[in-house]
């Protein structure tokens, strides 16, 4: 196990990313467990941090952890040392605490247990997915795959893939657009398929009542909504139900 870790993680330059991702997942699961215990008013759990009656959101602690881990990581020259892994882990915990309250920061109000609060969980899941892709060796825009093909080829591939991903995002396909930065064919599929009916692309290019607009809404009901409900169930299982009990 130790030899595998040294060969596949430390020697491959993935120590900090691995520590970040593991700490990020552990930090997110811990803080969600904590807030669910507080929501249940479990007597054995410490509860909110509220000195002088002022409730301190965990995003504040997350910012402190990110500063400590980020500055510490910059100060450590050896990226394969144990201290580099510790700094990355501290940064990962801080990032988890901040992104868990992403919706609160975005709306500048406490929407943690509302439907709007689901956005925080979605952002966390996206972060885990993108870090996982980086960890298995994929790189944004496939730069490594064309590194030996010449400057103009590299520039064309990068710009083309970036444009496809951007179109997919405009069509309301967040997962497709972001994963498409790593896997070009995913970006291509997202760019050529119909946009989601409420996306910026659809509002600008699909006239109300048009054939494309009707097809987009049919696809949304037939394919997207079942996947959304499945995602919501997974989110509720991990993070707690927004408007009901956890």
Describe this structure in words.
With 246 residues, the chain is mainly α. It has a domain at 1-137. 67% of the residues lie in helices and 0% in strands. The chain is built from eleven helices and no strands. The protein has helices spanning 2-10, 15-40, 58-75, 82-99, 102-107, 118-135, 151-170, 174-180, 184-192, 200-205, 211-239. The longest helix is centred in the C-terminal third of the chain and has 29 residues, at 211-239. The relative contact order is 0.09. It comes from Actinomadura meridiana. This is Integral membrane protein. Keywords: Membrane, Transmembrane, Transmembrane helix. The chain crosses the membrane at residues 15-35, 56-77, 83-107, 119-138, 150-170, 177-195.
Give a summary of the structure in a few sentences.
The protein has 246 residues and is an all-alpha fold. It is built from 11 helices and no strands.
Largest sheet: none
Ends: how far apart?
A: 38 Å
Number of helices: 11
Low-confidence stretches: none
Rg value? 21 Å
Structural class, by secondary structure, is: mainly alpha
Mean pLDDT rating? 86
Number of strands: 0
- What would you call the shape? globular
* Residues in helices, as a percent range: 55-70%
SSE ordering:
HHHHHHHHHHH
Please state roughly what percent of the residues sit in beta strands, choosing from under 5%, 5-15%, 15-25%, 25-35%, 35-45% or over 45%: under 5%
Transmembrane segments: 15-35, 56-77, 83-107, 119-138, 150-170, 177-195
Organism: Actinomadura meridiana
Keywords: Membrane, Transmembrane, Transmembrane helix
Protein name: Integral membrane protein
């Amino acid at each position: 196990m130790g030899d595998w870790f040294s060969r596949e993680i430390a020697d491959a330059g993935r120590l900090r990313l691995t520590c970040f991702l593991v700490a990020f997942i552990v930090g997110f699961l811990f803080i969600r467990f904590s807030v669910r215990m507080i929501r249940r008013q479990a007597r054995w759990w410490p509860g909110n941090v509220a000195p002088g009656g002022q409730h301190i959101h965990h995003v504040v602690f997350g910012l402190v952890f990110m500063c400590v881990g980020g500055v510490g990581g910059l100060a450590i020259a050896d990226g394969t040392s144990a201290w580099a892994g510790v700094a990355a882990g501290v940064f990962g915990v801080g990032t988890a605490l901040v992104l868990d309250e992403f919706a609160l920061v975005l709306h500048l109000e406490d929407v943690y247990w509302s439907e709007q609060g689901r956005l925080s969980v979605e952002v966390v899941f996206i972060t885990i997915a993108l870090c996982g892709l980086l960890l298995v060796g994929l790189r944004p825009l496939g730069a490594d795959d064309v590194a030996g093909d010449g400057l103009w080829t590299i520039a064309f591939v990068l710009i083309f893939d970036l444009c496809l991903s951007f179109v997919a995002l405009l069509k309301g396909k967040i997962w497709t657009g972001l994963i498409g930065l790593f896997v070009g064919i995913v970006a291509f599929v997202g760019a050529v398929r119909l946009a989601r009916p409420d996306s910026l692309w659809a509002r600008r290019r699909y006239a109300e009542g048009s054939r494309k607009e009707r097809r987009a809404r049919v696809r949304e009901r037939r394919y997207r909504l079942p996947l959304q409900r499945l995602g919501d169930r997974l989110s509720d299982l991990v993070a707690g139900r927004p408007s009901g009990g956890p």
